Amino acid sequence: MKLVPDTSAVIDGRVSERVESDDEETTVCVPEAVVGELESQANQGHDTGWEGLSELQRLSELADDGAITLEYVGRHTKPSEATGAHEGDIDAVIRDVAEEQGATLLTSDQVQAEVARAKGLSVEFVEARVRGSGDLVIEEFFDDQTMSVHLKTDTKPKAKRGAIGEMHYQTISEEVSDEATMKSWADDIENSARASPDGFIELSEPGMTIVQFRDYRIAIARPPFADGIEITAVRPIVKTDLDDYEFADELRDRLAERQRGVLISGSPGAGKSTFAQAVAEFLNDSDYAVKTMEKPRDLQVGPEITQYTALDGQMEKTADSLLLVRPDYTIYDEVRKTNDFSVFADMRLAGVGMVGVVHATRAIDALQRLVGRVELGMIPQVVDTVVYIEDGRVDTVYDVQTQVKVPEGLTAEDLARPVIQVVDFETNTPAYEIYTFNRQVVTVPLGEEAEGRDETGVSRLARQEIEREIRSIARGHVDVELQGQNNAVVYVDDDDISYVIGKGGGRISDVEDRLGLDIDVRTHDENPANTGSSGGSAAATPDDDSGEIVTPEVTSRHVVVRMDEHVGETVEVRADGDYLFTATVGRGGDIQVSRGSAIADELEQAIDRKQKITVHPA
């Protein structure tokens, strides 16, 4: 009898099992296409490849013992066929080999068997081998207060245990996990997820696999991506509803009133996802069509709420699909990168209620992450509610509004502009204002948020802008002192007095008109602080080494400072510690200064002098 096994039969070990149980003389013809596929899988670190190669070695031993005749037949696969294995290209090559050899095709692939029968081939189908225990082998490490378990080769098992907000990272076993044990656990988890209806593989990349098994999310890292096998299993330890939180009635009314844009913010482990689940269940019970966008999918919601992941690896495609599904609300977990904020904004502006989960250490920080990623005037249309979670409870709720007014701290009526007011939901008092000031985006704390600050945001920005303007026309050192909301004193070198003031006061008047402030120009000798030319303005901190060193790029039209990891943040740019200017990092991840401007000239001079250019949080 002649047998041609396909890849599935070899991986399952069904070939040696079949011939060992049969007294009939058997010739096993292994297609070279099978060998190539197994080699490819083994090179990619997949256990199936190694298991298949082990089966070929067993067949070789049986051939050496005279139990079977072993032949390798057929042609090697082409690169295009190898990359199209999931589309059936290699299966087709194997069927051709079985036909040419006049052999029986041995397979544990149901589709392969049906196609071969349709083509008139002799087929022997064997059930696929079930891999894995079908259960979670590391579940023994969990108890009622365990949120996550952390296992790694050559270390003791650890876990995070306790109530939300009071988690402790602790050793849970004195027995060190060796490599063989870790590999066994990792393989069993992956195989059980593939075989069990309770699990699935969320992500599978060389070195990293994300598994969802019941309510556990498990990340399995392997070398060379990690320096050893590591298993991190996480599960929610509580499930809440909206009634368990402060402001429950007010939040219910707010969410049910109309579709809104909500950011749920907090630090890792604070309980953001638990609160998001409660919001999702409330909205579903309130007759809203609710979907989720998650990667990985680990929100614990009811079956009526469909959970979507990244379609073809892209959340933009998921969003396009959801717009056809027409949900009333979508829970987006997590909104982290610029692309996530863009997708969130697009769906919200399309009329879908959006609830986004965002990492932030303060409530206002969640909103500021939109700055530079979304047009400033559109932010209240994208997000009108910010909920900050701390230690599993609702700590702060902000209402986001737009008004045209004179910003707090300024008095001149001609300085009125669109201002985003961030209002404390509990007290109905403004906590922050966000607006543009002399081409810069500034966030100004108000009321209690401003207490304990030596200098308000608007004062700081005003001082920096005054210093920048004067430094663009003065040749020597400049100090700035604010005196009230609309007055400032500028101290310059004696030789610069007439130059800064200009003929008939014209030059300083132009600066005053641009800034909306009255400026008095004096010499450094008249400065009560007597800082002298060797000192620095309040904005300059030459000894501050905390900034990030950057290398500006000079193009034909701009001087560009790349800041990819700081999109939307307001930062100071300094040269050897001396303040140059303040800017907000654009949505493209850079600061662009037009060449020919005073700021660009200063920056280029600093580059020419090989000064250290650093960027600091504003």
TrEMBL record:
The protein's name in its UniProt record: ATPase
Similarity comment: In the N-terminal section; belongs to the PINc/VapC protein family.
Keyword Transmembrane helix: no
An example Gene Ontology molecular-function term: RNA binding
Annotated Pfam families: PIN, T2SSE
Domain PIN residues, every copy: 1-114
Ranges where the AAA+ ATPase domain occurs: 258-393
Keywords: RNA-binding
Biased composition (Low complexity): 528-541
Residues covered by region (Disordered): 523-552
RNA-binding found in the keyword field: yes
